[in-house]
Amino acid sequence: MRQYVTLFLLFFSFIIKTNSQEVLIVADEIPAMQVLAKSLKVQEGITTKIVFQTSLPRSLESFRAVIVYIHKDLDSGPEKAFIQYAKNGGKLIILHHSISSAKRKNNEWFTFLGVDLPKKEAGEGAYKFVGDIAMEVVNLAPNHFITTHKITYDTQILYTSEGQAQENTLPGFVLQNTEAFLNHNFQTPRTVLMGFKMKDTTGKVWMQDRSAWCMPVEKGWVFYSQPGHSYTDFENQIYTRIIANAVIYKL
């Protein structure tokens, strides 16, 4: 009898885990994530739970996806929990300043993500953030689910991909009064999904194929998207549709 009870409990636990539809959002700036959470619910019926990293659940296994939106320091405990969640088969979605200079002091984060933020002059390839700009975001993966499912882009953008000379007209969208991160240096392979185009305070135009990407990590998967400086970025329905697509994307 005890054996049957044990089997039933294991089966019940498995059903709860596999049927879980809730997405955990871990953030230190809540209003922007409340806007995102509302949009995910409206667009795809996705339910969310927003917490600070100091209130992280003991286990992340039951969540359909975990979204990280941390501007300031990323504590070592949550850092390890996010990495382990993804490696064990979870869907880790990282937004905006979750890859930024404040994370340089973390022991594992950038190695896990395969990125580097070089310290040198921006014109020579250094990491730099530029605020109060208009950012044009272009679709560089026209056949990928995340960049196409239920999306109609509202803008056509002249864009030259990195390493190419030819300018192309690509579909995209525009975010106003936002912030760009220059020179996220990729150290490992990944699928590039979106690029960005913007003009800095000197009038120089920057175009980089680093606005959004995804990659497998052991049993799981990571998606990163660079926009998200303020809640107004998440009022753009095309942008939040891309994030919703990342949540529902079948690995």
Task: Tell me what the structure shows.
The chain is of the alpha/beta class and 251 residues long. It has one domain: Rossmann fold. It is built from 6 helices and 12 strands. A 10-stranded mixed beta sheet has the order 2-1-3-4-12-11-10-6-8-7, sandwiched between helices. Helix 2 packs across helix 6. It is globular.
Task: Name some characteristics of this structure.
alpha/beta; Rossmann fold; ten-stranded mixed beta sheet; about 25% helix; about 35% strand
Looking at the overall shape, the CATH architecture is: 3-Layer(aba) Sandwich
Order of helices and strands: HEHEEHEHEEHEEEEEEH
The chain-level mean pLDDT equals 92
Write the CATH homologous superfamily: Class I glutamine amidotransferase (GATase) domain
C-alpha-based Rg, rounded = 19 Å
Largest sheet: 10 strands, mixed
- Strand percentage, roughly? 25-35%
CATH class: Alpha Beta
What is the share of helical residues?
Answer: 25-40%
Instruction: Provide the CATH topology.
Output: Rossmann fold
> Oligomeric state of the chains?
single chain
Strand order within the widest beta sheet:
2-1-3-4-12-11-10-6-8-7
Low-confidence sequence ranges? 4-19
Per DSSP, the total helix count is 6
The total number of structural domains is 1
Protein name: ThuA-like domain-containing protein
Pfam family, one: ThuA
InterPro entries: Class_I_gatase-like, ThuA-like
Organism: Runella aurantiaca
